[in-house]
Amino acid sequence: MARQGHSALAYSRTDYRDAAKKLGFLSSLLLDLCEEHPEVILLCTSILLTEKVLKSMPFQRLKRSTLFVDVLSVKEFPMNLFIQHLPEEFDNLCTHPMFGPESGKNGWNGLPFVFDKVRIGNDERRVARCNRFLDIFAREGCQMVEMTCAEHDRHAAGSQFITHTMGRVLEKLQLTSTPINTKGYETLLKLVENTSGDSFDLYYGLFMYNVNAMEQLERMDFAFESLKKQLFGRLHGVLRKELFGNSEELEVLQEKLVKQNG
Fold first, then answer.
1. What are the pLDDT tens digits along the chain (262 aa)?
2. In this protein, which residues make up the domain named Prephenate/arogenate dehydrogenase (predicted)?
3. Which one of 82, 93, 115, 165 has the lowest number of neighbouring Cβ atoms within 10 Å?
4. Cβ(69)–Cβ(45) below 8 Å
C-alpha cells in the first residue's frame, strides 16, 4: 500500500512500531488513528477477536462514510458483524486474500483475491474509493474474484477447511521424512508444515464460523468409513477364497451342510 503511494496508519495491541516503520506505515493509538478520519479501516484481526475489536472502535470519531474492510478466512461471519454493529452510513467490503506469508512470499501475481461489496454508498466518490482499494491488489497481479460471502464460505469449506483438516490429521500421525520419500509424500510433509504453522485458533475459527464446515467433517468421516469397507470387503473375499477355494467348491460345501441339517 505504501509503495503504491497510499498513506497508512497502523494500530495493534502489541508493539509493532518497528515492523510498521519498515513497511512504510505510521504506528498510532486507536483514538489518534480515528481522529485522522481515515477513508478506510482495514481490520486484520483473528476470527475469534473480530467482534471484540469491532465493538471497541470509537465510531463517533470517524467520518460517517468510512469504508470498513475485513480480510478474514470466513466471510458470512464478518459480514453479519458489520451489518449488526456498524452505523448504516458506513460502507462495508468483505474480502479474503486467498494466500498467506508462504504462498505469497514471491509476489501475489495470479493469486485469488475474493471480495463482496456488501454495502457501498451510491455516490461516485464512495464507489470510486472502494474500487481504488481493490485496485491495490489488482495492480499487484491478484486474480480478482467477486462473489457473495455465502458462496465464498461454501467453496472455502470444501477447499481451505479440508486442506487444514487433512494437514492437522497428518500432523497427529507425526510423519517424518524418510530416505526414500516419493514426490507425493513430500507434498504431504509440506502440507503438514504449512498447516502446523497456523494457529489452532485459525483452524477453530474456520470450523466454528463457517456453517458449511460441519458438513465437510461428516463427509470426511463417511468417506473414510467407505474406504475402509471397500478395503475390508476385498480382504474378506481373499480370505474366503483361501479358506474355501473357488466358488464351486464353496457351493458344494454349502449344499452338503444344507443336506446334513435338513
1. 878 888 888 888 788 888 878 877 776 766 677 888 899 999 999 999 999 999 999 999 999 999 999 999 999 999 999 999 999 999 999 999 999 888 899 999 999 999 999 999 999 999 999 999 999 999 999 999 999 999 999 999 999 999 999 999 999 999 999 999 999 999 999 999 999 999 999 999 999 999 999 999 999 999 999 999 999 888 887 777 777 666 666 566 667 666 766 5
2. 1-261
3. 165
4. no
What span, in angstroms and rounded, lies between the C-alpha atoms of 133 and 135? 5
User: Quick one: 112 and 240 in the same domain?
Assistant: no
DSSP reduced 3-state for 89: coil
The DSSP code for 148 is: -
CA distances from residue 110 to 117, 138, 139 in whole angstroms, order as listed: 21, 10, 11
Per this entry, what is the length of the chain?
A: 262
Residue 14 sits in the same domain as residue 137: yes
Collect all residues with Cβ–Cβ distance below 8 Å to 190 and sequence separation of at least 6: none
